[in-house]
Amino acid sequence: MKNKMHLAVLGLLLPVASTTLAAEIVNKDGNKLDLYGQINGVHYFSDNAGSSGDQSYTRFGFKGETQINDGIIGYGQWEYQIGLNGAETGEQSGNYTRLGFAGVKFGPFGSISYGRNYGLLYDVGSWTDVLPEFGNDSYEAADNFMTSRGNGMLTYHNQGLGGIIDGLNIGMQYQGKNRGDDAHHTQDLQTQNGDGYSFSTTYDIGWGLSAGGAYANSDRTQAQRSFGMANGDRARAWTLGLKYDRDNLYLAANYTRTQNMTYVDGGNYTGFAPKVDAVEAVAQYHFDSGITPSLAYLQSRGSDMPGIGDTDLVKYIDMALGYSFNANMSTYVEYKLNLLDKHNAAGLSADDIVETGIMYQF
User: Fold this and answer.
1) What per-residue string of b and e applies to 287-310 under the rule 16 or more CB within 10 Å gives b?
2) Which of 43, 179, 198, 285 could crosslink 192 through cysteines, CB 3.0-4.6 Å?
3) Are 330 and 359 in contact (CB under 8 A)?
4) Euclidean distance between CA atoms 188 and 348, whole angstroms
5) How many other C-beta atoms lie within 10 A of the C-beta of residue 165?
């Protein structure tokens, strides 16, 4: 299988982070509405049957703004994903709302929004989330406290502190409780959360270099405390990152520690890890010809896990090659070289995956 994977990597092309595009629907009398989306034909090749086969999907959404007065703008965004690998007569899977929030911008005083949005840990985590398909999974997961997308996010952002410090961006966030009202509500431990808060700050130093950090702290639900393996009333995380983006070269890295927050779903361990240390690093070069090679390394290691002790939870090298025909069309191939031990203590998959795809975006 690995020989076939190597041939696939050599024989196909693969794109990296796509350019944000949009089709303008309305722009009149202070009201703007843009439609955006992508259709992604994706196929996985792996010895692991659960990670092999058609993974195609489409994703679309809209962004809108309305001018309330000279200094205040209302805005909203909604984004949805639909799986394209289900039978017409069967139950469709992979259909869900990714984003959905509304808010108000107060000029130099920042913006505030509420709804389904990204947690502030992603303000730094997004810097390494530039691979075609994989990556951004050393500790991040949707509906996992404030590590990625989640519900009930009240978010404040300010860029430049009202013009006082150019390049300095700050964020503050509150997340309300989601699910897990009693100790018997154990079916969705991974996606529950209690009330939580987070902070983030990033600074554009100049010369293409940026630095950032974020912190999050959430109450754990009664079900998580009772059945979630890790002990403690709170789930916490902090992350630090660096980014360099200049002259076609892109480099980014971050280091993160989580406590009672990272969920593990393995054959030998299912529940939250008491402590996880995670690192993500990525390098890309964008050639003028449209070719973009990238190389990334991701690892997270759990500590003091009940019954199994210390063990790697994520560990792989990602090699990708993309080609953009133009701003709307690209093709790509990506090789996830899994470095986990075949007999790792958590019972996690250690198989490699090759992913190929072709994408149209607007």
Assistant:
1) eeeeebbbebbbbbbbeebeebee
2) 179
3) yes
4) 20
5) 12
**How large is the C-alpha radius of gyration of the chain?**
21
Within 8 A by CB and 6+ apart from 339, the residues are: 299, 312, 315, 316, 317
Give pLDDT tens digits for 256-271: 999 999 999 999 999 9
Residue 272 to residue 252: CA distance in whole angstroms: 27
> What average pLDDT score do residues 35-59 get?
93
Task: Indicate whether 91 pLDDT > 90.
Answer: no
In angstroms, the CA 15 to CA 36 distance is 19
Across the range 114-138, mean pLDDT stands at 97
- Which residue, 155, 156, 227, is CA-closest to 188? 227
Q: What is the pLDDT of residues 203-226, one digit of tens each?
A: 999 999 999 999 999 999 999 998
CA–CA distance, 99 with 105 (Å, rounded to integer): 18
Token pair in block for residue 343 = 């007999």
Residues near 341 by beta carbon (within 8 Å), at least 6 away in sequence: 312, 350
Q: CB within 8 A of 69, min separation 6: which ones?
A: none
Q: Can you tell me the distance from the alpha carbon of 152 to that of 69, in angstroms, rounded to the nearest whole number?
A: 27
Q: Which residues contact 6 (CB under 8 A, 6 or more apart)?
A: none
By DSSP bridging, strand 168-175 and strand 234-246 are: unpaired
Q: Which residue has the tokens 């690192």?
A: 279
Cβ atoms of 281 and 130 within 8 Å: the answer is no
Which helix (H) or strand (E) element contains residue 254? strand 249-259
State residue 16's pLDDT score: 36
Rounded to an integer, the average pLDDT of 138-154 is 97
As a whole number of angstroms, the distance between CA 123 and CA 148 comes to 9
Instruction: For residue 219, give both structure tokens.
Output: 């109450």
Kindly give the residue spans of alpha helices, DSSP state H, lying in the chain.
2-11, 122-125, 222-227
pTM of the predicted model as reported, rounded to 2 decimal places: 0.91
Beta bridge mates, 16: none
CA-CA distance, 300 to 295, in Å (whole number)? 17
